[in-house]
């Protein structure tokens, strides 16, 4: 069950990866369209503002169609085969469901007590791809996507009688989905309005939970990272509907122009923004952690540790992707991760108490573009306090981590016991494999060799049962976990850590994981199609002995 939740959480991360770019573009359009920042060129009605408006309209595509995006992303992530076809039929099934709901509301809305004359925030209705429908938000989108991908996995390969062969495959999936959506649409019309009222009550409760709610939310968001279930904590808040229907991220961007022109405190302008301060630990905590690990490393290993820490720390601070850094100490010193989660919750609560609100769920680039730069003119003092509190906590992170590392002699990077040098395939071996792969029609790119190495480390292509990924982790189901190489071998390839739970394996790779996984898919597919290709096969006895297996 845990594996299924992790896979589902990973699938939901696929569309989230687009948010960083479009959020940055929208923030830049707000900055460049503000006369107080760029001058008279940004006055209303100028050619400049018209161009900026066009760019902003394009950037809003992702957020305006967020439900459809998640349907596609979940279908791609969870489909066991023919992922492209699964995404296509999933999107059509979702839109069909909404059309059925829209038709019911149009014809029977008066009898149901639902007025469809007004659509928008607070009405319970929404316009999705031009369809007036109930505002089920991401809950509805993800639920229908899950139904769609189940139907796809169950019926895509169903063999029909020959005279019905034209209706096989994706067509049959859609036929089953079409009939299912008729029933689900009727149920939704009756069941969803009471759920909406319950969500409204939850929003009120969370909004008035104050510092305690912020602390609990942030602590859970951090402490669940090793399990991969933290997505189920932050997504209902950032993308809706835990505190506001459309989610904090979209609500903040929508309100940013008015917030920039107001001198009222941010705590008054955007009170729900207290639940988007979890990124503070990604910026300020990461600095303290990295310096503590470096300073406690053995002198002869500091250069090597620095080479590891600089890229993962920069990734964490700038983009908010912290898993590569956190997994450098998580499994060798779990107590440090518990301390890390406690400090993250305390930092978010303290910044909340000094009046900070906004969208601080990511890294420094988002801090600058969606908060500090557009709002600095009227809210600079709040941000000065935020930076001072954050840097103070960086020092707390450093001293507490340093104390625990030295006190308990924790084997953080640079303090490990000396071991024999790990020997994998030589560069020449992999160059030969690349040449063989190229001859057999496999597209070679900068990630091909890494993909080959991970296939080897996971026990060879015959040991791979299922491949998936989230933003930073390769998620693999293997047939026999005993065939995996030791964690040190994965780290030698470039991984930051490995989580083994039975046959469910997570390899923490970082930002390259999407490309590496894609290349692994191609390698495995080609190998299965052509038995003459010998990529990722188990190593011979000599290399097995070298690896200590």
Structure, described:
The chain has about 550 residues and is mainly alpha-helical. About 65% of the residues lie in helices and about 5% in strands. The protein contains 23 helices and six strands. The chain has helices at about 1-15, 20-30, 35-40, 45-60, 60-65, 65-80, 85-110, 135-155, 170-205, 210-225, 230-240, 250-260, 265-270, 280-295, 300-320, 325, 335-355, 365-405, 425-440, 450-455, 485-495, 515-530, 540-545, and strands at about 125-130, 130-135, 465-470, 475-480, 495-500, 505-510. The strands form two sheets. A four-stranded antiparallel sheet has the order 3-4-6-5, with helices on both faces. The protein has a two-stranded antiparallel ribbon with strand order 1-2. Helix 2 (about 20-30) packs antiparallel against helix 4 (about 45-60), helix 7 (about 85-110) crosses helix 8 (about 135-155) and helix 14 (about 280-295) packs across helix 17 (about 335-355). The radius of gyration is 26 Å and the shape is globular. About 40% of the residues are buried. Mean pLDDT is about 85; it is low at about 420-425 and about 530-549.
* Poorly predicted regions: 419-425, 528-549
Q: What class, by secondary structure content?
A: mainly alpha
- Work out the radius of gyration: 26 Å
Shape call: globular
Helix and strand element order: HHHHHHHEEHHHHHHHHHHHHHEEHEEHH
The helix content, as a percent range, equals 55-70%
Report strand %.
Answer: 5-15%
Number of helices: 23
Strand order of the largest sheet: 3-4-6-5
């Amino acid at each position: 069950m845990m594996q299924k939740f992790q896979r589902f959480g990973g699938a939901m991360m696929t569309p989230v990866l687009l948010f960083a770019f479009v959020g940055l573009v929208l923030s830049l359009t707000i900055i460049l369209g503000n006369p107080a920042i760029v001058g008279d060129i940004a006055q209303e009605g100028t050619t400049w503002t018209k161009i900026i408006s066009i760019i902003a309209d394009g950037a809003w595509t992702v957020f305006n169609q967020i439900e459809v995006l998640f349907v596609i992303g979940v279908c791609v992530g969870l489909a066991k085969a023919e992922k492209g076809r699964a995404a296509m039929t999933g999107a059509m099934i979702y839109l069909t469901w909404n059309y059925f709901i829209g038709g019911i509301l149009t014809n029977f809305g008066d009898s149901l007590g639902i007025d469809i004359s007004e659509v928008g925030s607070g009405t319970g209705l929404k316009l999705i791809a031009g369809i007036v429908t109930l505002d089920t938000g991401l809950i509805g989108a993800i639920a229908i996507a899950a139904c769609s991908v189940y139907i796809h996995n169950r019926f895509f390969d169903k063999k029909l009688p020959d005279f019905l062969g034209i209706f096989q495959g994706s067509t049959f999936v859609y036929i089953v989905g079409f009939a299912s959506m008729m029933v689900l649409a009727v149920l939704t019309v009756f069941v969803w309005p009471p759920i909406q009222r319950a969500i409204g009550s939850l929003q009120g409760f969370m909004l008035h939970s104050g510092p305690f709610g912020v602390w609990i939310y942030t602590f859970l968001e951090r402490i669940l990272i090793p399990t991969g279930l933290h997505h189920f904590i932050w997504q209902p808040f950032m993308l809706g509907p835990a505190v506001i229907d459309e989610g904090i991220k979209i609500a903040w961007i929508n309100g940013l122009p008015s917030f920039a022109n107001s001198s009222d405190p941010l705590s008054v302008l955007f009170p729900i923004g207290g639940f988007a301060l979890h990124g503070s630990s990604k910026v300020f905590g990461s600095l303290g952690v990295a310096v503590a690990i470096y300073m406690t490393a053995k002198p002869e290993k500091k250069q090597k540790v620095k080479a590891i820490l600089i890229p993962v720390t920069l990734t964490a601070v700038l983009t908010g992707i912290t898993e590569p850094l956190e997994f450098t100490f998580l499994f060798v010193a779990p107590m440090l991760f518990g301390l890390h989660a406690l400090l993250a919750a305390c930092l978010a609560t303290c910044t909340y108490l000094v009046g900070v609100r906004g969208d601080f769920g990511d890294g420094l680039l988002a801090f600058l573009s969606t908060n500090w730069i557009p709002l600095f003119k009227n809210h600079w003092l709040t941000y000065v306090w935020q930076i001072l509190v954050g840097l103070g906590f960086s020092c707390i992170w450093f001293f507490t981590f340093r104390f625990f590392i030295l006190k308990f002699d924790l084997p953080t990077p640079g303090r490990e016991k000396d071991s024999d040098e790990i020997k994998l395939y030589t560069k020449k071996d992999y160059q030969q494999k690349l040449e063989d792969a190229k001859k057999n029609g496999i597209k070679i790119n900068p990630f091909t060799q890494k993909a080959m190495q991970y296939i080897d480390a996971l026990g060879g292509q015959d040991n791979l049962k299922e491949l998936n990924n989230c933003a930073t982790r390769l998620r693999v189901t293997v047939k026999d976990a005993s065939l995996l190489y030791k964690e040190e071998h994965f780290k030698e390839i470039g991984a930051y850590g490995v989580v083994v739970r039975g046959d469910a394996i997570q390899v923490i790779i970082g930002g390259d994981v999407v490309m590496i996984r894609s290349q692994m898919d191609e390698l495995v597919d080609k190998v299965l199609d052509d038995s003459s290709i010998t990529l990722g096969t188990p190593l011979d006895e000599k290399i097995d002995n070298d690896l200590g297996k």
